[in-house]
Amino acid sequence: MHTVLEDLLNLLKLERIEKNIFRGESRDIGSAQVFGGQVLGQALSAANHTVSGRRAHSLHAYFLRRGDMNAPIIYDVDRSRDGGSFSVRRVVAIQHGRPIFNLAASFQEPEEGLEHQVEMPVVDGPDGLQDLTEVAPEILQKLPEKMRRYLTVQRPFEFRPVEPANFLSAEPRAPLKSVWIKAVDQLPDEQALHQNLLAYVSDYELLGTSTLPHGLPFGQGRVMMASLDHALWFHREFRMDEWLLYAMDSPNSSGARGFSRGQFFTTEGRLIASTSQEGLVRVLPHTESDAKRSDPKTQR
Length: 300
Known about the structure:
CATH architecture: Beta Barrel
Number of domains: 1
Distance between the termini: 39 Å
Helix content: 10-25%
CATH topology: Porin
Number of strands: 12
Structural class: alpha+beta
Strand content: 35-45%
Number of helices: 6
């Protein structure tokens, strides 16, 4: 298995400390703090460790504080309910004695029922599209160091945007974005593992969709973004080592917050999951004096 993907699988396995308490480590993906998708995936993994014979069908989460990449994260699982068909788990992620993240997840025994779904958007397939990391060196040199690290770090997934990214002079456009996603190597068959990985990857690209109508100057390093909450629904079985289309849109931005939605489709057009997220979006001042007065490092 590809080394970076194997490392992610180990990251999501977690260390069991007690019956309902788990410990996880972090990896630097080029962001200033722990990647939100990592905490999502690990928290769902912790909940999955306490459920048998049932699969996650939904999760709802809040990001409370920035995660410290240099400290372990403790996941405390509360077995809230085990009913006839459904189980509910609450998970608190803790660092330095304080909660940084809360998650509630619901699990269901497999059951047959009514079926319908929306149609997959008509877009170009993944073949022939460039990976997100394939950025010309002359463009990379003009980007802030933080963005360069984010774009060039080795990833466990391929990301092939349908719409080409313009990092230097973004123009306002409709709040719509589609990205093909697939793990870089073959994965085991366990469906809970694929759900953990989808939770991890669902935090990529989503919030940025809410900035598209505004043509924000990402290449100038003046945009501050942070996930606030995240919801995810699993509809059907899927594999993360097969191409999935992540189709995203943003119906609203207001109050320094952006709201985005996403849907995951297989290449055959089957809707396998839906997600939504609200996040902080701030455009920082132009001048150094303005920056000092407004303090860009202020915590959300």
